[in-house]
Known about the structure:
The chain has about 140 residues and is mainly beta. It has three helices and eight strands, in the order βααβββββββα. A hairpin with a 5-residue loop joins strand 2 and strand 3. The longest helix is centred in the first third of the chain and has 9 residues. It starts with a strand and ends with a helix. The mean pLDDT is about 90.
Amino acid sequence: xxxxxxxxxxxxxxxxxxxxxxxxxxxxxxxxxxxxxxxxxxxxxxxxxxxxxxxxxxxxxxxxxxxxxxxxxxxxxxxxxxxxxxxxxxxxxxxxxxxxxxxxxxxxxxxxxxxxxxxxxxxxxxxxxxxxxxxx
Length: 136
């Protein structure tokens, strides 16, 4: 399994701003414009999306779709942990219309010296054919 790690620092951004973005991703036109479909199927008790279905148009290849379960937890040290993992759903069966992607991500974010720090481990499988010209 290949795992990717990213570490980002957003100068002057507060964790509450990031949390608000996560809670309302489907309302952000810049985020949603890249998706053919973005359905929040469930929300948790804090109003975070808990189950999301997406359908994406991919250049030079078959559309991709995914269903992810998102779990959000506030940790004792004040940081936030988000676990995102693929799952199946009876209302969204696999079909020939798109290739189902698989994802697992662990994201931790916190404030340090007035900046938002985000650490993320991710494993993502797009499935199917992927043109090498897109990578280069």
